Amino acid sequence: MNAEQDLLDAAALTVFRLNGQFLTIGDSLSAPVGISVAWWQVMAAIQEDPLPVAGIARAMGITRQSVQRIADLLVDKGLCEYRPNPAHKRAKLVAITEQGHAALRRINPQHAVMAARLAQALGPADFAATVATLTRLATTLDTIIADADG
């Protein structure tokens, strides 16, 4: 392998490790509220605006089928609801309910504590730079994948 391949491997392995770490943190924050981290991810994706299942899947980088399964559970639990989609008759919008917003608000205090701990450990400027770099990496990979799909 060459140096670029080594970097790609190191980046991928680091992101896989980060994913596991974020899931562990997410579970510790969401479990006391009675929701899974997967439920939290879907609700967070629609916290501001309702989206169709496919839109949530694109935003999260997971399959539409996974989001559909979670959305159905969230609707059954009263945390989300399906609404008509003016842009598409068959693809309903998934919207968070007041009960869903309340669950997210219950997570917020411990979420703020974790964010403060991370900002203190990294330093605010390095924390922001890290997020910017990760965002740039994700955007670049989106472009590369789209170009390959062509």
Automatic annotation (TrEMBL):
Domain HTH marR-type: 4-139
One Pfam family hit: MarR_2
Name of the protein described by the UniProt record: MarR family winged helix-turn-helix transcriptional regulator
Protein source organism: Nocardia lasii
Organism ancestry: Bacteria, Bacillati, Actinomycetota, Actinomycetes, Mycobacteriales
